[in-house]
Write a structure and sequence with these properties.
Layout: H1 7-21, E1 25-26, H2 27-36, H3 43-55, E2 59-60, E3 70-73, H4 75-84, H5 90-112, E4 113-119, E5 125-132, E6 139-147, H6 150-176
């Protein structure tokens, strides 16, 4: 017989995921992890459960100056997981543990090194590249550049995730001099 989680177990699964990922996650990241990539929780249920966990103060939104809201588990949420994690089947906990250890760094990088571009009136593109502080999602570094074509703007955004740490380190050491 297949395991069919109820609303309470789904809330525990969501809290368990937030606990194991160890970083504040955007709603899109949570939906991707729990629904799109793993089918642990139905997409619509996941959105609703996230709202319920926020209302019950088991999850909170850290303050940030970025456009995208992030969610993190509270101390009460960690206590809830500590008390009731056994209601999540061990096989599912193992899958979540494995997913978190394999993918945590990639999700962290995707949320810390953000980029976007938009078209200007003259046909060029403005590319905004940022590094966000992990816990609060506050901007710690930002650079805006102009690209001649959409392809070059998209290329800059794609490369940013890989190059951001080195670029930041080089600029920081040149300016601060430590």
């Amino acid at each position: 017989m297949d395991f069919v989680p109820d609303s309470t177990v789904n809330k525990l699964i969501l809290l368990y995921v937030l606990d194991k990922m160890e970083i504040p996650l955007t709603e899109n990241s949570i939906l991707e992890i729990c629904s799109s990539q793993n089918d642990w929780i139905n997409w619509m249920d996941c959105k609703d459960l996230l709202s319920q966990l926020l209302t019950s103060k088991l999850v909170y939104k850290p303050n940030n100056d970025n456009d995208e809201t992030r969610y993190n588990i509270t101390v009460a949420g960690r206590g809830c997981i500590s008390d009731f994690y056994t209601r999540i089947p061990k096989s599912l906990r193992d899958k979540i543990d494995s997913f978190a250890s394999t993918n945590r760094l990639q999700f962290k990088r995707n949320q810390e090194y953000v980029s976007k571009n938009y078209k200007n009136e003259d046909g060029s593109y403005t590319v905004e590249l940022k590094i966000l502080e992990p816990a609060t999602a506050s901007t710690i570094f930002s650079v805006t550049i102009k690209a001649d074509t959409r392809n070059s703007a998209m290329h800059a955004c794609t490369r940013w995730r890989d190059l951001a740490p080195n670029i930041y380190e080089a600029i920081y050491s040149k300016i601060i001099g430590n």
